[in-house]
Write a structure and sequence with these properties.
Protein name: DC1 domain-containing protein
Bound molecules: zinc ion
Structural class: alpha+beta
Helix content: 25-40%
Radius of gyration: 19 Å
Strand order of the largest sheet: 1-2-5-6
Order of helices and strands: EEEEEEHEEEEHEEEEHEEHHHH
Distance between the termini: 45 Å
Length: 251
């Protein structure tokens, strides 16, 4: 059951469940970007939003990637700053789950809840802590020095994107104002979506195939993979972009 009105310790006013949020927001809990349904303050002037995951965070949690860790919720991460989320590699600036070990791991509430399996259009992606293939965006296995970061990898192992890299791509586009509102859905303009997938040339270099036909097939699957991940991280509204972009590149 979902509560439509909640009280939250982080804000003096009531928060309302808003299933049709159409404008990207910055979550006032974890400070990360949000697109999907959220809780927002009953007073519009407050412009206060919480991801569902942040509003309903429990005092402790577990994650299968860290079997020996006991994660506790914190409004602000204790310990040495700056801190990074071990899932997405982004800064921890607000709400966080931190494990109780001496050298703790940190996870954003939304990252704790990332789906382990994404399926769509005949593609299955698994959330992975360790990957054997390079991320198609950054061409590296690590997000940055010392931070491996989680990835979504296709079951065939050929398509891999860091959660961090997908977040970066979407954030960049958001900052550049490339999100257009279409009816109730937030969609990336087709041009920008195109710039997020590896170029055909790059894919050909990967030795996937020397045939042009296979190269473009690889490219279109990579695009689809990326769209599935964007939807998984940011919620369903962006999923509408799939059909739209596919139709532009189908010829
Ligand atoms: Zn949040
Ligand atoms: Zn308020
Ligand atoms: Zn731990
Ligand atoms: Zn994170
Ligand atoms: Zn990457």
């Amino acid at each position: 059951m979902k509560y439509t009105v909640i009280e939250h310790f982080s804000h003096p006013h009531l928060l309302l469940w808003n299933s049709a949020e159409t404008v990207p927001y910055q979550c006032d809990g974890c400070k990360e970007l949000g697109f999907k349904a959220c809780y927002r303050c009953e007073y519009v002037d407050c412009d206060f939003h919480l991801h569902e995951e942040c509003a309903t965070a429990s005092s402790s949690t577990f994650h299968t990637f860290f079997k020996k860790c006991d994660f506790k919720f914190h409004e602000k991460a204790p310990g040495e700053c700056p801190r990074y989320c071990d899932a997405c590699g982004k800064d921890v600036l607000g709400f966080v789950y931190q494990c109780t070990h001496k050298k703790p791991y940190d996870l954003h509430p939304c990252c704790v809840k990332l789906q382990h399996t994404i399926k769509g259009d005949g593609i299955e992606l698994k959330l992975s802590k360790k990957v054997s293939s390079k991320c198609l965006k950054c061409q590296s296995k690590e997000v940055s020095k010392g931070i491996k970061g989680w990835s979504y990898v296709s079951t065939c192992g050929q398509y891999c994107y860091h959660v961090a890299c997908v977040k970066d791509m979407v954030l960049e586009n958001w900052k550049n104002g490339n999100f257009v509102q279409q009816s109730d859905a937030i969609e990336l303009s087709s041009l920008e979506m195109q710039s997020m997938v590896p170029s055909q040339e790059l894919v050909m270099q990967c030795g996937e195939s020397s045939s042009r036909r296979k190269g473009s097939r690889y490219w279109s699957i990579a695009k689809l993979v990326l769209q599935l991940i964007v939807s998984a991280i940011f919620g369903d509204p962006t999923y509408g972009v799939v059909a739209f972009v596919e139709s532009l590149f189908s010829n």
